[in-house]
Amino acid sequence: MIMLLRIDENVVLKQLEISDAKDVFQTIDSQKDYLGRWLPFVEYTKQLSDSEKYIDSVVNAPGDKFEYVFTIKKCDEFVGLIGFKDTDKQNKKTEIGYWLSEKYQKQGIMTKSVEKLCDLAFNHLNINRIQIKCAVGNSSSINIPKRLGFQMEGIERQGELLSGNIYTDLVIYSKLKSDYRLS
Predict the structure, then answer these.
(1) Nearest to 35 by CA among 90, 92, 79
(2) Most buried among 27, 105, 124, 147, by the most CB within 10 A?
(3) In 10 A of CB 65, how many CB atoms?
(4) What is the pLDDT of residues 27-38, one digit of tens each?
(5) Does domain 4-182 have CATH number 3.20.20.140?
(6) Can you tell me the distance from the alpha carbon of 71 to that of 23, in angstroms, rounded to the nearest whole number?
(7) DSSP element (H, E) containing 144
(8) Which H helix or E strand runs over 93?
């Protein structure tokens, strides 16, 4: 059963399926410069099969490695991805990763989508801690956890290798279930 999470009257999160590969690939392929500035996987996404392999690894992950990943759709059009990654079930913690098509920026879509995933994690998946890592210069991404009351914990120096063999520092934000109840 595919999970659907309604964000508002126009935006829905739909659990990722193999049939989404074409939309994912075409969006990445048509926005390589924009998305590739902050997302290391963009330079390795060269053909449809690359997106298919990624989605297959998510959809068919073994039960203990399964992560919820969702397409973001606005008015039934694919606009980005959001999901959990590196979930540690024993310690009840996870990370949220996300990206959004350039023309859908600054509409509140990602902030509302992250908020919905926090609700899912804290109220349905028994998670106690969520973290978000953002490249230091990526202010659009950084503003999302700030808006949602995440606490800045520090900088992971040279935490991610970007295109062109350039390392970027990552700002680490976290929110605890006890923080969530307060917000």
Answers:
(1) 79
(2) 27
(3) 9
(4) 999 998 888 888
(5) no
(6) 9
(7) helix 139-147
(8) strand 93-100
